[in-house]
Every structure is written in C-alpha cells, then in structure tokens.
Amino acid sequence: MLLELARWLAQDIRAFHVFDYITLRAVLATLTALAISFIVGPGMIRKLTEYKVGQSVRDDGPQTHLVKAGTPTMGGALILVAIAISTLLWADLHNRFVWVVLITTLGFGAIGWVDDYRKVVYKNPKGLSAGAKYFWQSVIGLGVAIFIYKTAASPVETTLIVPFIKAWTLPLGAVGFILLSYLVIVGSSNAVNLTDGLDGLAILPTVMVGSALAIFAYVAGHLYFSKYLGIPYVAGAGELMVFCAAMAGAGLGFLWFNAYPAEVFMGDVGALALGAALGVVAVIVRQEIVLFIMGGVFVMETFSVAIQVLYFKYTKKRTGTGKRIFLMAPLHHHYEQKGWKETQVVVRFWIITMMLVLVGLSTLKLR
Amino acid sequence: MYMNTNSTRLALGEAHQHKVLVMTTPNVHVRFWIITMMLVLVGLSTLKLR
Fold first, then answer.
1. Which long-range contacts (CB under 8 A, 24 or more apart) does A343-348 make?
2. Which of B19, B27, B40 to mutate to probe the A interface, most A CBs <10 Å?
3. What is the pLDDT of residues A197-230, one digit of tens each?
4. Do residue A259 and residue B30 have CB atoms under 8 angstroms apart?
5. pTM as predicted
6. Closest to A252 (Cβ–Cβ): which among B27, B29, B37?
C-alpha cells in the first residue's frame, strides 16, 4: 500500500524511489510488526484475561506446568494482526505470492481460531475434532499447492532442489509437486503446533527459520544472485522477504510477552498459521528440504510423538503392556522429565535451531 | 538497594538489575536480546540507508 504511495510521490520527489528496494521495505516491515505487537499486545492480553480466555493444561503433562493454567491463550491473533497489517503496508500488493502466503497464513489461523475458541470459550476440551481440523487444513493446503502449480512461470518452479548437490534436481510433475507441497504445508503447520508446548519454544525458531527463508526468497527472486549462487530463479519471490520480515518482527514482539514466565500463549491460531506460512514460503522458493533441515527442532518434536505412539501400540500388541521410548512426548517434555529446567530446554532448542539455520544457509554457497 | 543519580533513582545499579525487581530473570534476558536484535537490524539498515 505504501509502496504505491511512494511510487506516486517518486514522480515528483526522486528520494521516494528508495522504497523500491525490497531490503529496505523488509526492515521497515519488521519494525512495523514489532511496533504493532508492542502497542496492541498489552491491551490484548488484558482483554483475554478479562474474558477468561485461559489455557487449560493437559493433566497428563508435567506437574510443573499446572501453574500455567489460566494464562491467556489465542495470543497468536496478535501475531497475525501484526503480520497482516505490516505486509499490507510494505509489500507489493500486485505480487501473487504475497497474497498466496497471506491467505494461507490467515486461513490456517482461522482453523486454529475455531479450535481455540471452542476449547476456551465454549469450554469444549476437544475443540475442533481432529478430522475436521485435518479436513480444512487439507482443503487450504491442496488449494494453495494447485494454485502455485497452475501459475508456475517456468518448469524450475515445480522442480525439487536437492541442497549441497547442484546437479541433482528432480522434476516433480503435477501430482508429485501438489502432493509434496501439501505435505510440506500441512506437515509444517502441525509440527510447529506440536512444538508449542513451552514458553517461547515455538516462536523464536519460527522467527529464525522465517528470517533464513527471507534470505532464500530474496536470492530466489533476484536474477543475478540466483544465477550466481546456482539456485532456481523464481520471478517475484523476492517480495516474500517483506512477508517473512513482518513474521520475524511480529514473532519477536510476541516473544516479548511469551518469554518465561509467559503472559500469553499463542494457541493454535498462531502455531498452525506460522507453521503453514513457513511451509508455503519454502514451497514457493523451492527449498522444502532446506526447511526440513532448518526446522529440525520441529521435525524432532513431531517424530518423537510419532515414535512414542507407534512404539507404545506395537509393544502393547506384542506383549500386552505398552512401553515408551521417551519419558514423555513431545520431546521437550522428555527433557523436562530428565530434570532440565523449562528455560534450559527452551534456550538449548533455540541454540540447536540457530545451528541448523546456519547449516541451511550454507547450502546457498555449498553446492 | 537503591542508587541515587543526579536525574533519577534506579533500583540497583545496572539497567538489567533494575528490571530484575519487577520481572523474572529469563524475562529480562529475552527482552534485552530482542532489543539487541532490533538494534542490530537498525545497524544493518545503514548499509542501504545512506
């Protein structure tokens, strides 16, 4: 929106051409989203507390978490508001990728909102049924995947890129691309949701991975840089840097209130939306495998749940008594049960993500 | 413990200790990290804005 204004003003005042630079608008998007979080955050937390939109704590979880009961949830709405306003202000609204990512994020946010709303307002502990949740996630995920495939401008936009090995690329075809994109978007959304179990645990890795994807988007959308670094050129993808930057700013603003001891939780409205956003950006900039590497913490958390459930069922069937591999799943609870403090688990998982993001970024050069 | 300065009165000497009185330690850490990240971003923006 402001880009249009700047371009109009630039007809008379040349200095306004500075807003044509994606990098500058990305910085401004971060600061805008952060400012919105800081301005709206305290009021929103007060309102959520007033309306008793409090998180219920799972009774089979760690006992130390029982004190968290009643902490306001659905704070993810704050993140979504900050991302949406900042992106609408600073991104080029003629770019189709901006709308795809924004609509996906808000769509998954709406699913999470309904789930949270039923849980905390209607006091229905089940919220949205798992079937209904996956159905709507699949509708949006498949819709977005088909749209990206149909509007792809070149074959490289639907080719799987293997990191570290420049010569290995795999043309996916319609079915392969749509299936992979669907799995990445829905899988990423649920993985972030599973990780969101400790104060600040999900949001900072999301910010870090989102920031790295911003760099990938910038490079993929830049004809010269993409050629120089040997990654696929996706015309228009650079504008996603503004969205990712807004996500980073909104995430940091939310972390201000979500740091231990949290004043607010993001809830499904935030976790599902942010995970889907990471997934769809990775699909557009053709970095699905790099997302898998950088989001290693999300992957570990998801696998820990899958392994725990499968092993329990398997041993119950074989021996009659279900056994567990982890002391508790998801993985962050396992380490809490081993005696790590909540803040230790969170900061160590942040450090792991930082390392994985560096590995992911190194694929820009090492190929 | 308070320290008097010419213009204001800070509870404890350094800014981070002042904050500790009203926030928990992890809160202070994370919020100071966020401030640093933002300042780094502003610093990096000087690459473009000149």
1. A343/A199, A343/A260, A343/B26, A345/A198, A345/A201, A346/A198, A346/A199, A346/A200, A346/A201, A346/A260
2. B27
3. 999 999 999 999 999 999 999 999 999 999 999 8
4. yes
5. 0.92
6. B37
